[in-house]
Design a protein that fits this description.
This protein is of the alpha+beta class and 86 residues long. It has three helices and two strands. The protein has one domain. β1, α2 and β2 form a beta-alpha-beta unit.
Length: 86
């Protein structure tokens, strides 16, 4: 938040955060609840800052990556994968 004061004094700037789609939609994998919750919290913080800082001409956004096949993500059955994409 301290950097926000500096940016407000400059009368216009951008804040770009890196997020994940699991911040807005839980991905059903073992042990992902804490990760999804923390990313959801970050998403809400970004949303709140965007609203609060807009009057100071500060643009706050996030770039969210898609779900990737990693060791943390369990492969879903093929029909479930197709349903999620459609």
């Amino acid at each position: 938040m301290a950097v926000g004061k500096i940016m407000m004094a400059q009368n216009g700037d951008k804040v770009i955060n890196v997020s994940s789609v699991s911040g807005s939609r839980a991905i059903p994998t073992p042990f992902s609840a804490s990760c999804d919750a923390s990313k959801g919290g970050l998403g809400n913080l970004i949303w709140a800052l965007a609203i609060m800082w807009a009057r100071y001409h500060l643009n706050v956004n996030a770039i969210a990556r898609c779900a990737l096949e990693t060791s943390m993500r369990v492969t879903l059955p093929e029909d479930e994968e197709k349903r999620k994409v459609e």
